[in-house]
Design brief:
The structure holds 2 protein chains of 2 kinds.
Chain A: H1 3-16, H2 23-76, E1 80-84, E2 90-93, H3 95-101, H4 105-108, H5 113-116, E3 127-131, E4 138-148, E5 151-160, H6 162-184, E6 188-192, E7 198-202, H7 213-216, H8 221-224, H9 230-241, E8 246-253, E9 260-270, E10 276-285, H10 287-309, E11 313-317, E12 323-326, H11 328-333, H12 347-356, E13 360-361, H13 366-374, H14 376-379, E14 386-389, E15 394-401, E16 407-413, H15 415-464, H16 471-501, E17 510-513, H17 514-529, E18 534-540, E19 547-550, H18 552-569, E20 573-583, H19 591-595, E21 604-614, H20 621-624, H21 636-642, H22 648-658, E22 662-667, E23 673-683, E24 693-698, H23 710-714, H24 728-731, E25 734-738, H25 742-754, E26 758-762, H26 765-774, E27 779-783, H27 791-800, E28 809-813, H28 820-826, E29 831-834, H29 839-852
Parallel strand pairs in A: 18-20, 25-26, 25-27, 27-28, 28-29
Antiparallel strand pairs in A: 1-2, 1-5, 3-4, 4-5, 6-7, 6-10, 8-9, 9-10, 11-12, 11-16, 13-14, 14-15, 15-16, 17-19, 18-24, 19-23, 20-21, 21-23, 22-23
Helix pairs in contact in A: 1-2, 12-13, 15-16, 15-25, 16-22, 17-18, 18-22, 26-27
Chain B: E1 2-9, E2 12-18, E3 26-31, H1 33-38, H2 41-48, E4 53-58, E5 62-64, E6 67-69, E7 73-79, E8 84-91, H3 98-107, E9 114-121, H4 128-138, E10 144-149, E11 161-163, E12 171-178, E13 182-189, E14 193-205, E15 208-212, E16 215-216, H5 217-225, E17 241-244, E18 253-255, E19 257-261, E20 266-269, E21 278-283, H6 286-298, E22 307-314, H7 315-321, H8 326-336, E23 340-347, E24 349-353, E25 360-363, E26 367-374
Parallel strand pairs in B: 3-4, 9-10, 22-23
Antiparallel strand pairs in B: 1-2, 1-7, 3-7, 4-11, 5-6, 5-23, 8-12, 9-12, 10-24, 13-26, 14-15, 14-21, 15-16, 15-20, 17-18, 17-21, 19-20, 22-26, 24-25
Classes of the chains: A alpha+beta, B alpha+beta.
Chain lengths: 853, 375
């Protein structure tokens, strides 16, 4: 019985609980087992059928896909492919074959292979390089056998190798080019094998003479390096064993005559499998280069030693402002930033450090200073290059641009020099101040003396005009008047000299005529010669211009001094005054002279030469040396004998020099003297002075009565016999005299009375202002220094407050120093007179200003 | 070791064998789902063995001695002479993942002296692969894990497990076997043949398979099942799926269908079906399946003396072979001999170490045997 049926029976018995099986249950079990068997069969059949279907589909898909792959490969492969039958006729082919052979497949099928290519492959030579027949393109052909259904067929692969051929050409060219480069370069190329033996050298020619190329081939690097220092050798062997690239390996090769120093660089070579096969690289002979380097280093060392030993700090900055060279002295000079001074630091960093560490006493704001120093545009234009350090030293920094665009700085400690200069400057200032104080004192003293002198001269003059004097009184008064005038002359000399010393005397050029100069001198000289047998003679060179531009007053002063000296020291004979003129030589056209060029179109620079020659006592050579020095005369005894301050010649010489000229003397004792004044002036017209020679003779004036000419005592020089009256219209004018000093009030007042001008008096500026406000005056004579309100203030108020711009106001001042006149004119005054009042001058001013009004 | 085996069938208990068991530590039972629902198996056994751990589950067929039963309650009382037993259970919740549940379950067992953990898992609410992973988080590799997923005949509706209480749905039970002298051995073989083209899992999510080779997997199964398609998901077990990592010939596992979802053309398997894996349909041949069971028995480490073999075989085998299923149990009984008592059940998934990797895996469509002996 089937095991399953036995089991079904057992189950059925268990079901019934007896030996008799439950039949219904048994039948059910049996039926079920049939169904189960059927189901199993059904499922198995179905699965088998489905599986087969699926597998067939899959197989077909695989075949389709394989064909697709094949076709894709054929079309993309890049090579041309032709399928040939057993007789080598073309059966099929891919697109690339058509393109390469430039014919459609149908046409290709009509050709045997050897018509398509220069050479066709066959069973003996399956692979070859040839060309396509119609266009000569290079191709590689590979023929392989295919067995298809037992038939021998073949496959021909056509590979376009034109690029490969071109690349080979290029490679050949490149190799040739490489060889050319190698041979023309000073480097040579080498190759070693795996055991580091030299196997090839290219471009070795340049050193052939010094090393035998043949002897190099086959030798190993270790042999070649036998003279190298052991550490270099060992390092290099390490590199080689590790197959590391190396650069600039230097060692000495044995040369034919002497060792050759070479520098070698190399890279390891590996074959396609990555096996080490040797090194390849370049090398060059650096023997000469190294010699040059050593030479340069030597020079540089010398330079460094030199720089290091000098006493100045030196620093060199490159074009990027980086410090590239300096000496120790630099650090010593700037101890506050010695730690910062090192190679590579920049100029701006150092400048900032100086400021941050407060090393310098800066003359300007620190940011301005920094900006000025850091900017290369301004750095080299620093004018004050000496800086004081905060520790009390002075350092001079001279910085210049270098041709490379950098900066070189030279720094020196100038503390000692600076202190010496400072000391000298102080001393000089002190001396100058002392001298100036002296001059000011003299000027002030002169002023103080002039005020009383004014009174004496004025009053004696007025007294002499009186008719009721006894001859004795007249003589006394005359002597008082003469002496006081002489005293004034001395005073004026001292004043002039003080002005010159104090630098307060200036040349004030104006237009004048030569005839004025001659007339003035004549007027002065004539009384001095009175009574002596002296011929006075003028000699004017014919072409001398008639008009000049120059300081007539000062020229007068010089000529008066020279001619009065001549008169003073000449007892008899001749006094000749020669005047000549020549164009100023171009080289003497100095700037000062040019700066005084007058505003006249025909002005020409000239030299006026005035020579005063006498037949007097003469001057010895020794004495001539001190002649022009202040406070000395030819002989101290002369002062006593002839009088005078001894300042006259000194002043005259100074004046000549101020007029860009000179004063010289030629003389011999007892032979007479000749003083020559040379003055640079301007001639103003082509008109020449007319009277060529003017001679004045005093044959009868020999007077043996003492040295002082008698007439001098009777006739005060330059003074009129009596005061000439003013014109009618001028006499009607009303003048306001503003003067606080009662003597001066009297002197001036009397004089105005004498010339017939009516006046009113005001004692100070305030009174004057009040009177001017209420009365009508044609002119005001104004003292400057007064109580309550001074003259300058009063004048200012007249002009500004009263608006009387045209009222002539003439200043009268004892302040004879330079600058007074300017101050007066600035305050609005019309003109200026200096005290003591010279009556002729006063009259002249009055005539001028009253006629103008 | 003493063993007593008894069967409750047609309303009667029948004792098949008894070594004189008096104080069993463990009573194992395997029952038809209907019995679990209505016959209070725990109560019946607890009255008989009040001091034993009583654990069991619902099946797709019960194995006792050399026979396969249906609609029965098969119980085996085990009295261990040198070993001891611990049990643990965990109820599955919505929040608790399969791996976390496995973790919590075996965490309850002391590991000192533990040799084997035999798992009784709900058959439908658990991803067996994840369950094993969770257990392995706690248990070291030396401790063997075997067991099975409960069954619901061919219906795939409700499964039950019980541990010292009446069986209930949605529960995991673990029985821990302890003792120096306990020898455990396991073996698992299928005997199914792969057929048809190799396919690729192109869309899946854990144990839910959507597509093979870009085609709905459910359609493929329906196509092959023909008329049997109406019996899905049960009939799906007739064509198990062999899956293996891509481009590998070894490490293949077999997966059976637990459920189908017509709405999204998906199939739910008892274990994971990872995307990218290779998949191939399998079919059974009676002789080859019986040969597979014999193979499993022959691969056990078998000693002289009394022993208990716990057989977990797949419901799929039984569905295909019908009444001939008894042949595979008989062949195992013949190989193991008289001294080894057999019990077991037809399951929705077998848990055992993989024959090739040695790692515990969820299997389907196999005969899995765990042999317990004391020396």
């Amino acid at each position: 019985m089937h095991k399953l049926l036995q089991r079904q029976l057992a189950k059925a018995r268990r079901r019934s609980g007896t030996d008799q099986p439950d039949m219904d249950y048994l039948l059910q079990l049996i039926s079920d087992s049939y169904d189960e068997a059927d189901k199993e069969h059904r499922l198995a059949d179905r699965a088998a059928k489905l599986m087969e279907e699926e597998l067939v589909t899959l197989h077909r898909q695989h075949i389709d896909q394989a064909r697709q792959y094949f076709e894709t490969v054929l079309s993309r492969v890049g090579d041309g492919v032709l399928f040939l039958d057993s007789r080598q006729r073309i059966q099929n082919g891919n697109k690339q074959a058509e393109i390469l052979l430039d014919q459609p497949l149908e046409l290709l099928q009509q050709h045997p292979l050897d018509e398509l290519f220069d050479q066709a492959p066959n069973a003996d030579q399956r692979q070859l390089e040839t060309r396509i027949a119609h266009n000569q393109s290079p191709v590689e052909l590979v023929l392989s056998q295919l067995t298809h259904d037992g038939r021998q067929e073949s496959l021909l692969i056509i590979r376009d190798i034109s690029e490969r051929v071109a690349a080979q050409d290029k490679l050949r060219q490149s190799k040739s080019m490489f060889r050319d480069f190698a041979e023309s370069s000073s480097d040579w190329f080498w190759e070693t094998d795996a055991k580091h033996r030299v196997i090839s050298l290219t471009g070795f020619t340049p050193v052939l003479k010094r090393i035998d190329q043949e002897s190099m081939i086959g030798r190993s690097r270790m042999e070649l390096m036998k003279n190298a220092p052991s550490e270099v050798f060992e390092q290099h062997i390490d590199d080689l064993n590790a197959h590391r690239p190396f650069r600039d390996l230097e060692y000495e090769l044995e040369g034919n005559d002497s060792p050759v120093l070479v520098s070698v660089s190399g890279k390891p070579r590996f074959d396609a499998e990555g096996n080490f096969i040797g090194y390849r690289g370049t090398a060059r002979d650096i023997t000469e280069l190294r010699k040059t380097d050593e030479y340069l280093e030597q020079i540089e060392n010398r330079l460094r030693t030199a720089i290091g030993s000098i006493n100045e700090g030196i620093a060199l900055f490159d074009k990027d402002d980086q410090l590239v060279l300096f000496n120790e002295r630099t650090k010593e000079l700037y101890p506050q930033m010695a730690d910062k001074i090192e190679l590579g630091v920049t100029y701006p960093e150092l400048a900032h450090t100086l400021v941050e560490r407060n090393a310098l006493v800066l003359p300007v704001d620190k940011d301005v200073w920094l900006q000025y120093q850091i900017n290369k545009e301004t750095r080299y234009t620093v004018r004050i290059n000496t800086a004081e350090t905060t520790d009390g030293r002075f350092i001079q920094a001279l910085e210049y641009p270098t041709p490379e665009g950098g900066t070189v700085g030279i720094y020196s400690d100038v503390t000692d020099t600076q202190k010496l200069q400072e000391q000298l400057r102080t001393e000089k200032e002190r001396a100058e101040f002392a001298n100036q104080a002296k001059s000011e004192f003299l000027a002030n003293m002169s002023h103080e003396i002039r005020t009383p002198m004014n009174a004496i001269i004025g009053l004696s003059h007025l007294a002499l005009l009186s008719t009721e004097l006894t001859p004795e009184q007249t003589e006394y008064l005359d002597k008082i008047h003469y002496s006081s005038k002489q005293l004034l002359g001395i005073l004026n000399d001292i004043l002039d000299f003080s002005k010159i010393e104090a630098g307060k005397l200036s040349i004030e050029p104006q237009h004048f005529e030569l005839s004025d100069l001659i007339a003035h001198t004549d007027t002065l000289l004539k009384p001095l010669l009175d009574g002596r047998p002296i011929e006075h003679q003028w000699q004017v060179t014919p072409n001398t211009p008639a008009e000049f531009f120059g300081d007539l007053m000062r020229i007068n002063q010089v000529l008066a001094n020279l001619s009065s000296n001549a008169a003073k020291f000449t007892e008899q004979g001749q006094i000749k005054i020669s005047i000549s003129c020549r164009p100023a030589s171009p080289e003497s056209d100095d700037a000062e002279h040019q700066s005084q060029r007058p505003p006249y179109p025909n002005a020409r620079g000239v030299e006026l030469i005035i020579a005063v020659q006498d037949t007097g006592i003469g001057i010895s050579k020794e004495k001539q040396a001190h002649l022009f020095t202040a406070f000395t005369q030819a002989d101290a005894s002369i002062t006593r004998q002839f009088g005078g301050t001894g300042l006259g010649l000194a002043i005259s010489k100074q004046l000549c020099e101020m007029m860009q000229g000179d004063l010289t003397v030629s003389s011999e004792a007892a032979q007479g003297s000749c003083f020559t004044a040379t003055l640079k002036l301007w001639s103003l017209s082509d008109q020449v002075y007319k009277t060529a020679i003017q001679s004045v003779s005093h044959p009868n004036s020999i007077n043996g009565n003492g040295l002082m000419p008698k007439t001098e005592l009777n006739q005060p020089s330059g003074q009129p016999e009596s005061a000439p009256a003013m014109k009618e219209t001028q006499r009607e004018a009303q003048v306001l005299l503003v003067e606080d000093n009662s003597i001066n009030q009297m002197v001036a007042g009397r004089f105005l009375d004498k010339i017939g001008i009516s006046f009113e008096l005001a004692e100070n500026g305030e009174q004057a202002l009040e009177k001017i406000r209420h009365n009508h005056y044609q002119l005001v004579l104004m003292d400057l220094q007064m109580p309550v309100m001074d003259g300058l203030t009063a004048t200012h108020k007249v002009r500004e407050e009263l608006g009387m711009i045209d009222l002539p106001i003439i200043a009268m001042t004892a302040n004879a120093m330079q600058g007074d006149k300017e101050r007066c004119l600035e305050a609005g005054m019309s003109d200026y007179l200096s005290k003591p009042i010279d009556f002729m001058a006063l009259k002249e001013k009055l005539e001028r200003w009253l006629s103008d009004s | 070791m003493k063993i007593r085996q008894q069967i409750f069938e047609n309303g009667r208990w029948t004792t098949l064998s008894d070594d004189g068991v008096s104080q069993p530590q463990l009573v194992l039972y395997f029952a038809a789902p209907e019995i679990c629902r209505s016959q209070s198996p725990y109560q019946q056994l607890q009255q008989q063995f009040p001091n034993a751990h009583i654990a069991g589950l619902s099946t797709g067929g019960e194995i006792l001695a050399d026979e396969v039963f249906d609609d029965s309650l098969a119980a085996t009382a085990i009295e261990l002479e040198h070993s001891r037993i611990e049990t643990a259970s965990v109820h599955l919740t919505e929040e608790l993942s399969s791996s976390a549940a496995g973790h919590d379950l075996v965490q309850q067992l002391p590991q000192e002296g533990l040799r084997l953990v035999w798992l009784l898992s709900d058959g439908l609410k658990v991803n067996g692969s994840e369950l094993i992973r969770g257990c392995r988080e706690v248990l070291p590799e030396e401790i063997m894990i075997t067991g099975g997923l409960a069954g619901d005949g061919p219906d795939f509706t409700t499964t039950y497990t019980g541990c010292n209480a009446e069986p209930t749905s949605g529960q995991l039970v673990a029985i821990g076997f302890y003792g120096e002298r306990l020898q455990v051995s396991s073996s698992s073989f299928g005997g199914w043949d792969r057929f048809g083209p190799l396919r690729t899992v192109t869309r899946s999510e854990d144990n839910v398979l959507y597509e093979l080779d870009g085609q709905p997997a459910l359609d493929l199964y329906k196509h092959y099942l023909g008329d049997e398609a109406q019996n899905l998901p049960g009939s799906g077990l007739l064509f198990p799926l062999s899956i293996r990592p891509p481009h590998q010939d070894e490490g293949a596992v077999v997966r059976t269908i637990l459920a189908v979802d017509e709405s999204n053309n998906s199939l739910t398997f008892a274990g994971n079906v990872p995307e990218g894996y290779s998949a191939q349909l399998m079919r059974g041949n009676f002789d080859r399946l019986i040969e597979g069971a014999a193979n499993a028995a022959e691969h056990l480490q078998h000693q002289q003396g009394r022993g208990l073999a716990l057989l977990v075989s797949c419901i799929g085998r039984k569905l295909l072979m019908g009444q001939r299923i008894n042949d595979e149990v008989e062949v195992v009984a013949d190989i193991l001999g008289q001294d080894i008592a057999l019990t077991g059940f037809y399951s929705y998934g077998e848990i055992a170490p993989d024959g090739y990797t040695g790692q515990c895996e969820l299997h389907n469509q196999t005969m899995t045997i765990t042999l317990l002996q004391e020396h």
